[in-house]
Design goal:
The first copy, chain A, is an alpha/beta fold and 376 residues long. Chain A has 13 helices and eleven strands. The first copy, chain A, has two domains: 179 residues, 3-Layer(aba) Sandwich (Rossmann fold); 190 residues, Dehydroquinate synthase-like - alpha domain (Dehydroquinate synthase-like, alpha domain, Up-down Bundle). In chain A, the strands form three sheets. Chain A has a seven-stranded mixed β-sheet, sandwiched between helices. In chain A, strands 7-8 form a two-stranded antiparallel ribbon.
């Protein structure tokens, strides 16, 4: 170990009163996890929850790191994939944890991407009415998004994340080394959320990404640490101001109303990854803002150009062989849990880094933007 | 309507910061519910969740009362009985609510006993990561216990209430008129929890019950209102000091470690109602305290005498045809979620109204008390 591996991890503090916690970002954090985890434990026992894919890559390293510090470790390996975020797997996970006789002072450790983090966090929030949990996110998407802010949940036949809780981890360990094990498409999907923070209210960060984003993707350690740190800090700031999503937090949904609809239409399959939907959705949100005369068309073009330049899709037409209709996409939007008094929630922009939550959006304009986007 | 029916309901304020709420206790509250419910609604739409038995008795009255005030009402009728507090029914309830397109500003109304309140409260806490709910408890047990304090939950094969959340209602409407529809045994089961508050730390209230408890049971309106009010105030005070059960709140478990074990051994069937287990458990807790030389034997005798005088069981032998063993009961206790670092949590007493949470209890003494209680 030499160079950046030995540097202290970057620390982002998420201020939420007595639910505050730290996010540590750095290389080799899984192998050195015990020093950060041990001080937070009640009972000196953790249960690691992970999926079959991540288990092969990182489980033994984490188990060994904790056992070396005399922390008792049990592990539960769930099937990989979005299907695991279900009532059925939640019930099964709770049963396994109760069979292990977890106590209120036990700690769950979520080792994996968003699916594992969301499901494990939800289980932690309801087992014995709430036990501690720690996140060890292993995807870029989880490191910059789902591990910050305390949203947990599962999917139902009615939609994604419609059942869940707000429940904060005690600690997040984001080991940047895990990103080297991701496929390019998965990494890019996480990058869409990184770019989102620049677009929401940090135009300088977006400019930085226009120059350095490709380094983040290609694996430059200091670029990754910086980008993840800025992203977590941005999300922590927004979440800290509005933990339960009544106002400012809604800006984090930039691109998500469109994106979720695209994902839903693909049945949340691998046809469209979450970040791909968000990338296309952000382009649509800026196009809609430009169409409404709110945002300079040049800014909308800049968004599209940067996302495309790193290799993200920016049009629904990037999905091979699928026929889209605006009606169906709007129908999906109407089922989103951000719907309030029957109105769909959009995030619009007056420019890069100048997003806001409009009181009302004319659906005929949304339809026009969708039709333009899906016209071959 | 005349006399007590026209008096304003008694109001108990549960102080929990921004999760504070009021409990209203009085006659005819279901028929006058709209005036209390309407000011708390976001969207002017509620979903009433109830069970088949309660629906026959009270659903139409509540629906009509709300509709008269132009509040939109949907109703969901679940099967009656403890079996409804399951993952399966939780999933089904969430699905029905999502199919009705509930929004974050929608409100659930739990109309029924503890099963309905616990399940509905849990569903409210996880649907869309939390929507408002209101409790309309229709049993004495629910009015004095489960409707105060925000504990929600379901049962699993591993035990009762091992999965759930802390989630506060916005309002509790305790209509004392609903108690007239209860069977004697169910009413007595609730009365055990009323007596518990006197035993925990209100000796004067226990003395009052020794004189007036039978009136509470026989249906005297002012005695009921007083006893429910004192009970709610006692629980609210204890919960307010310790919302998440780390210290003082544990006193509310007086009789429950023994009681839950008795219930568990009966498979949580009608062989032993919750309050019956608590009544026997409180007698055992005082017997154990006396055995340990902590409490005057006269106080233990007084507890037994009062509970028996109103018609509550005070010995496991009251269950016909069941063979008990101390080993199995202690095994059940070891599975309770109040177990901490492998130690079973007991509440003991130095006298009536002088309970405390001991650091350690010698299990051989517990075994001795159990063996004395189950010896024919």
């Amino acid at each position: 170990m030499s160079g950046p591996d030995r540097s202290a991890p970057e620390r982002v503090h998420v201020e939420l009163g007595n639910r505050s916690y730290d996010i540590l970002i750095g290389h080799n954090l899984i192998n050195t996890a015990a020093q950060y985890v041990a001080p937070l434990l009640g009972r000196r026992h953790v249960v690691i929850v992970t999926d079959a894919n991540v288990a092969k890559l990182h489980l033994e390293a984490l188990e060994q790191a904790l056992k070396r510090a005399d922390i008792g470790v049990d592990s539960i390996i769930l099937p990989a994939g979005e299907g695991t975020k279900s009532f059925q797997e939640l019930e099964r996970l709770c049963g396994l944890l109760l069979d292990m006789k977890v106590e209120r002072t036990s700690t769950l450790v979520a080792l994996g991407g968003g699916v594992i983090g969301d499901l494990t966090g939800f289980a932690a929030s309801i087992i014995l009415r709430g036990i501690n949990f720690i996140q060890v996110p292993t995807t870029l998407l989880a490191q910059v998004d789902s591990s910050v802010g305390g949203k947990t949940g599962i999917n139902t036949p009615q939609g994604k994340n419609l059942v869940g809780s707000f429940y904060q981890p005690r600690l997040v360990l984001s080991d940047t080394g895990t990103l080297d094990t991701l496929g390019r498409r998965e990494l890019l999907s996480g990058y869409a959320e990184v770019a989102k923070y620049g677009l929401i209210d940090e135009p300088d960060f977006f400019s930085w990404l226009e120059t350095n984003g490709i380094d983040v993707i290609e694996g430059d350690e200091s670029a990754r640490r910086y980008a993840i740190g800025v992203s977590c800090r941005a999300k922590a700031r927004i979440v800290g101001a509005d933990e339960r999503e009544s106002g400012a937090r809604a800006l984090l949904n930039l691109g998500h109303t469109f994106g979720h609809a695209l994902e839903a239409e693909c049945g949340f399959s691998d046809e469209m990854l979450h970040g791909e939907g968000v990338a296309i959705g952000m382009v649509m949100a800026f196009d809609l803002s430009a169409t409404l005369g709110l945002c300079p068309p040049e800014d909308a073009a800049r968004v599209q150009r940067h996302l495309a330049s790193v290799g993200l899709p920016t049009s629904p037409l990037s999905v091979q062989g699928r026929i889209w209709t605006a009606e169906r996409l709007i129908e999906h939007m109407g089922r989103d849990k951000k719907v309030k008094d029957g109105r769909i929630g959009f995030v619009l922009a007056r420019g890069i880094g100048q997003t806001f939550h409009p009181a009302h959006v004319d659906l005929s304009q949304v339809t026009a933007v969708l039709n333009a986007a899906i016209a071959a």
